[in-house]
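Technical note accompanying the year-one report. For the benefit of new consortium partners, we illustrate the data format agreed upon in the data management plan: each record pairs a sequence with a structure-token string. No post-processing was applied to the example shown here.
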Amino acid sequence: MAEHRDGQPGEFPFTRGIYPDMYRKRLWTMRQYAGFGTAEESNRRYRYLLSQGITGLSVAFDLPTQLGLDADHPLAAGEVGRVGVAIGSLRDMERLFDGIRLDHVSTSMTINSTASTLLALYVLVADAQGASRAKLSGTIQNDILKEYIARGTYIYPPRPAMRIITDVFAWAGRELPEWNTISISGYHIREAGSTAAQEIAFTLANAIAYIDAALKAGLAIDDFAPRLSFFFNAHNDFLEEVAKFRAARRLYAHLLRDRFHAKDPKSLLLRFHTQTAGSSLQAQQPEVNTVRTTIQAMAAVLGGTQSLHTNAMDEAIGLPTESAATLALRTQQVIAHESGIPAYPDPFGGSYVVEALTDKLEQEARAYIDKIDAMGGALTAIEEGYQQAEIHDAAYRYQQRIETGDQVVVGVNKFTSNDPAKTPIFKIDPEIERQQIDRLRDLRASRAQATVDVALARVEAAAKSADNLMPPILEAAKELATVGEIANALRRVYGEHR
């Protein structure tokens, strides 16, 4: 039986959970992904959410920040502050975390191509607060491979982008011992239309690529593997999702022990954040999204997540309103404090259905990983379009089932209503873009430009050499170089991926 093979929670291969007591001693971190408009507006939302009981911040950045474009860049027009907060420089980062002690809160930042720069800005704010870098906890997503597969916010070609990531591994390993240097994301792979097995497989194949790159850069497996973390989706198929998390943990533990010969027990632990499925939210009958989110959140908790974000019911319409974000948080709090689930480390242990689904998903995911290995690894497979094609096919098949009615989506193709939705919509003030551009121009006019130019030249020089990129990026950020200027220094060396 799988139950006997997998032992107890906290025992290899950790199918049943990475800790013996799971939530009995400590609940999962409750995050609410938030960020919009200016740094001040987002700061107000963070303070509000902290007052309502979240235990970790989760920062959304706008598209220009993600793509290394300053607010006054022509391609940033119409996007400043729209799907996240606009961060152009250290001054914005200071405003974003004003009054929030960074050594007292765990912060997750969903940022990839410019992750090294945003991490530098975060560390500089903490330094100014007098916080010890050794006490900073949180995560940068820093997962560029899934951008090429599923999401699209890449800047540089894949191979130099991997070099930036391994430089962050090496630097943070010395400077930020409690920081998760990457959150290897299956979430966006699932959002793009993958199956549960593909989500596991393509995520772990990317993890293999990152580990290989770090080993080639001279890092020792047990020096960086304990700080690797993961980010998964929680979708609607409740029992399959519970099994998915179990299968991913078991597969990862075997990979790290048997393939990479990790010796530190912490290297074998697949620690992950979960977000409920944004792609499952419907604009029709948005209140029903609360039910979807509750089912997905319970799957994540029963699957053993370390951290959780619950989507708000109005996110298919726009950015979440304060009341909808609060209800989403309350969903987690009810599960934590009223459901009784946290009293049991592995409530589904021994369930025939869940154990059989776990085995099935592990086998399917392993077959995908073997195929990617045979192609030369995740990077080569991405360059050949393999993962992208598999996801597109899965998404097409799913959409076909919806259109034929074989897959019921409540309120969309069955149980529909003609009553218009009365959900209030959160709107971004269009003046934010002009305000951000004015701030950027004031910053450039007031800083010591010659010093900035020297610092940016050092970033460029480091990119041309084998020197670690993080120290010159920190220096440039401290001298008030903008996110776009630092990205441009790297663009001049690496070019852009097309």
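Partners are asked to follow this layout when depositing records. The beta strands are 29-34, 56-60, 106-110, 137-140, 179-180, 182-185, 228-234, 272-276, 307-309.
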